[in-house]
Amino acid sequence: MIEITNSNFELLGVISDYESLIFNRSWHGVGTFELHINKNKKNVDKLQHDNFIIINKKNNKIGIIEDIQLDCNNTKTLIISGRQLKGITNRRLTVTDNYDRVTQTEAENIFKHYINNHMIDTYYNDIATLERNILWLRLAETQNRGLETVWQSRYEYLDVLMEHISKDTGLGWDIVLDLAQKCAFFDVFEGRNRSINQTENPPIIFSDKKRNLSTSKITDKQSSWKNTGYSLGKGELEDRPLIIAKENDYSGLARREALFDMSSTEIQDLAEESKKKLEDYKQIKSIEGTIYQIPNMEYEKDWDLGDIVTIETEGYTEDKRITQIKETYERNKTNIEVTFGDKTPGLAEQIQKITNKGVI
């Protein structure tokens, strides 16, 4: 079922009769959705830009409508698409006269610092920029989750920044609807460790033998991998400070070097930023496949997005985090496709990675 609301969280209508719905959930980044529906069906007229769709009354399965397309080969079919509600972070930059820096604190507080500063209570040069505030967005109470680190940002898309922090710290993030209060809360999440290499939780194993996994793709990509970074700070010619960041002590053929042109003159800042830059060039290891429900392994109850599980397929056994889930709904049939580990970036994502780096 799909409920449609406006941005004031007023219910506009309900749709249950459609051709297909694909809803992609992402742990680190922003997922997407695509709805195919006959344009003459009831409440289709409510599917307008910036209205929200709520899937099966789940407060964490919210999409914001961004694109409306009429299929010219089938003049009765509308294609409605957009992003998860947390995709509104793409509408803001970290606009600041100087760097917006966060000193040593837990990762959760870093996420929430940037959301507050650039979406909820925004300032520029100590002057309130009320036009940048989203009045219905709030911060969930912090629980000080995640490792302690530092961060800085300037003129960077907020969704890209959130993804960087997520990949660096392992925490997921989302904007969750609260219809009762007519608002939405930004929060971060810790996935559960359900692998066979822990004893705290019952393990979850996806494998060919258990017949709960049909593997479609295994990726082990090293073509863009860099493991040693040379970071040059601000300065003139030979006077520019230099920091070397290493993933490990690689040498010989295994050593893969990259150059990072930075604007900071502080050695500590250069060291922290260099480590983060290397994260953009890490090895990509992922498994993609279709999941089949079996007893004691129910989706969203026994396992969910962000959990670390064990994969056994094609002679390959490894613990991986669930980073993407694609839900497809068609005529009373639901299909679940999962990505374990780092998703292989498509061309559009690679271009975005090049253009959305912010001011460093």
Short overview:
This protein is mainly beta and 360 residues long. It has four domains: 2-84; 92-190, Phage tail protein beta-alpha-beta fold (3-Layer(bab) Sandwich); 191-222 and 283-360, Beta Barrel (Elongation Factor Tu (Ef-tu), domain 3); 228-279. 13% of the residues lie in helices and 40% in strands.
Number of domains: 4
Quaternary structure annotation = single chain
The global form is globular
Give the amount of beta strand, in percent: 35-45%
Fill in the CATH topology of the largest domain.
Elongation Factor Tu (Ef-tu), domain 3
Q: Characterize the largest beta sheet: strand count, sense, and whether it forms a barrel.
A: 13 strands, mixed
CATH architecture of the largest domain: Beta Barrel
List unreliable stretches of 5+ residues. 347-355
- The percentage helix is 10-25%
SS-derived structural category:
mainly beta
Task: Write the element-wise H/E pattern from the N-terminal end onward.
Answer: EEEEEEEEHEEEEHEEEEEEEHEEEEH
**CATH first level of the largest domain:** Mainly Beta
Give an overview in words.
The chain has 360 residues and is mainly beta. It folds into four domains: 2-84; 92-190, Phage tail protein beta-alpha-beta fold (3-Layer(bab) Sandwich); 191-222 and 283-360, Elongation Factor Tu (Ef-tu), domain 3 (Beta Barrel); 228-279. The protein contains four helices and 23 strands. It has helices at residues 107-120, 158-169, 267-279, 347-355, and strands spanning 2-5, 11-15, 20-26, 32-38, 52-55, 62-70, 77-84, 100-106, 123-124, 127-128, 137-139, 148-153, 172-178, 183-189, 205-207, 213-221, 228-232, 242-246, 257-261, 284-291, 308-313, 316-330, 333-341. The strands form five sheets. Strands 1, 2, 3, 4, 5, 6, 7, 15, 16, 20, 21, 22 and 23 form a 13-stranded mixed β-sheet that branches. The chain has a three-stranded mixed β-sheet with strand order 11-14-13, covered by helices on one side. Helix 1 (107-120) runs antiparallel to helix 2. The protein is globular.
